[in-house]
Amino acid sequence: SCPKIKLNNGVEIPILGLGTWQSKPNEVATAVEYALKEVGYRHLDCAWMYGNEKEVGEGIRKSGVPRSEIFITSKLWCTEHQRVEAAIDESLANLGIDYLDLYLIHWPIHLNPNGNHPTFPTLPDGKRDVLYDWKLKDTWAQLEAVLKKGKVKAIGVSNFSKRILETEILPYATVVPAVNQLEIHLYNPQHNLIEYLRSKGIVPQAYSPLGSTNSPLLTDETASAIASKHGLQTADVLLGYLVEKEIVTLPKSVTPARIASNYTGALAAASKLTKEDVEKLDGVAASGKQKRLITPPWPVDLGFENWPGQ
Ligand code: A2P
Question: Which residues does the annotation say bind substrate (predicted)?
């Protein structure tokens, strides 16, 4: 079974989870059922914004795996910062469950809830409709309240830089975020931010650990050479590299063979990688390959190193 990590509130999280961003509604139910029933995944990473939570819920029920054995995460979309509990209720209803294991603020950005588009409101000049004056501590206080009520077992953030954590969350928080979910992979390893998170007891989670769609990581020379040396696939090494660092890793796939190999391959790679392999992989981004692969559609300085356009 999958190794677990203890969060700062004692809740245990399986180190591998199935990502569901960009999984089409008509594919995700089968993918989730397969992952739970046939492979042994016990962790699903979801979000209201992915538009497929109903179908994820179907997959959970079809798998026959009891709810209590599965770790389920959802996320607050950017338009919903003023109605956190209602947004959680919506995700719970969509998934067909009565509590979440983890709930995250999806981005440190509040978009206009009365804007012209339900998820990505735009202004007449084409810019995103961002409410710049909103205080994220007021969002966080609502997550703390819902945690107290028991609708969620742990709370955290996603896409938060050190600067935003230090200026907008930690000085006001009663509960320190349990996790920060970030774009973490071979070409965007975020070494400094992860070290900072560790110092605060915040567990890093990696989304797009394989580099998302049309990934340049799958043909990376260093990762491929290490993979063939150990008789592994390059994807296994990309995932095992993160697992071995105790980063919660969330590969997305709707393809049964990949859903299976990502799970078994990541665990195999995590145990086979040598200290020397890891050092080589640690240096890849700094050798000229540093690249964020996910560019959010808002022109806001979020305080990250290596943010596109800075
Ligand atoms: P698919 O879902 O069609 O199988 P990430 O987890 O970094 O976001 O990457 C997800 C992307 O990588 C998806 O396009 C997914 O395709 C593909 N993918 C997932 N697992 C593998 C794998 N083991 N080998 C190659 N591509 C993969």
Answer: 106
Ligand 1 pocket test: which of 210, 233, 237, 259 has the largest number of ligand atoms within 8 Å of its C-beta?
210
Find the residues whose C-beta lies inside 6 A of ligand 1: 19, 208-213, 215, 218, 235, 251-255, 258, 261-262
Distance (angstroms) between ligand 1 centre and the Cα of 252 equals 6
Domains, the chain, ordered by start: 4-211+247-252 (3.20.20.100)
Q: Say if the ipTM goes beyond 0.90.
A: yes
What is the 40 CA–ligand 1 centroid distance (Å)?
18
Confidence (pLDDT) at 7: 98
- pLDDT-above-90 percentage for the chain: 95
The number of residues in the chain equals 310
Cα(92) to centroid of ligand 1, in Å?
27
Reported as a single tens digit per residue, the pLDDT across 37-59 is 999 999 999 999 999 999 999 99
Binding-site residue positions: 106
Give which of 267, 291, 81 is closest to 190, Cα–Cα: 291
Q: Which atom of ligand 1 is nearest to the CA of 215?
A: 12
| The two structure tokens encoding residue 307 | 């943010």
Provide the annotated binding site for substrate. 106
